[in-house]
Amino acid sequence: MYAFRRTFFALALTLAAALTGCSPEGSVYTTDTVSVTGNWQFSSSATAASKLPALSGVLSGTGASFTAILHSDSATSCIAPTTAIALTGTTSAQGVTTLTSSNFPSGTLTISGSLAIDGKSFTSATYTVSGSTSCAFASPANATANDFLPISGTYTGKFSDASGPVLTISALLSQSPTSDASGNFTLTGEASFGNACFSNNVPVSNTQVTGGNFTFTYSDPVTTNSVVATGTFSTDGTTLAISNWTLTGPCGPDSGTGSLTKQ
């Protein structure tokens, strides 16, 4: 009976370690070698974070040691979206991941949380800004932290205005594998609209992907019509929600909302 209990206890410890991401001794966190490289977004609705509601950009490396380049997602935040924030990150033996800025203007940005076993999100995430800066807030703000898979493939859907569907779109999109110096990604590709306002295979331009946000433009050199779209997309990169599109040119002006789904 004693041997059975000892064996059962050892198995229980092993199972607990697998569930928590730690060894029985708590000395090795299993996300150390997991890649965190990707397009990330950290956002908070907390009042404390009203000065800096969301940050997006690129993380590069593994859970054990990585770097990041983030920027503000909001033009009304305490720091301009064009300001690149460099951070370094590590994950402790207890599974706590911490990112700290090396160049946040007149202060220190700290992001922390528990890195998921797949390296695609943080649980119990918070961020805070300390120091003599207009961005500072005293208490850490609870946040969501997710890696967004690339926008890549064929997407179809409709753009609608107040009267109903206006454009039927089939778009081939491919997200850049690397970001620019501010942590933004870009898109290449082309689209057909099933509408006399646009010719076939209009190239996409003026693009930006950052966190779960995107913007792109289709300007037709033949018909001289142009549509600019902005919106958000799902973490798996399969659904693009168009929060606003604006059509200019001979067929315009017009505007509305829409959606695109990966095929």
Kindly describe this structure.
The N terminus is likely disordered. This protein has 263 residues and is mainly beta. The chain has 2 domains: 120 residues, Lipocalin (Beta Barrel), CATH 2.40.128; 111 residues, Quinohemoprotein amine dehydrogenase alpha subunit, domain 2 (Lipocalin). It is elongated and about 60 Å long. The protein contains 1 helix and 16 strands. It has an 8-stranded antiparallel beta barrel.
Strands across the major sheet, in which order?
1-2-3-4-5-6-7-8
Number of domains: 2
The level of helicity is under 10%
**What's the level 1 CATH class of the largest domain?**
Mainly Beta
Rg, Cα atoms, Å: 22 Å
Give keywords:
single chain, 263 residues, mainly beta, Lipocalin, 8-stranded antiparallel barrel, 8-stranded antiparallel β-barrel, 16 strands, 7% helix
Give a short synopsis of this structure:
By secondary structure, this protein is mainly beta. The chain has one helix at residues 2-20; strands at residues 38-43, 54-62, 65-72, 85-91, 96-101, 108-115, 121-130, 137-148, 152-161, 164-175, 187-192, 202-210, 213-219, 226-233, 239-248, 254-262. β15 and β16 (254-262) form a beta hairpin.
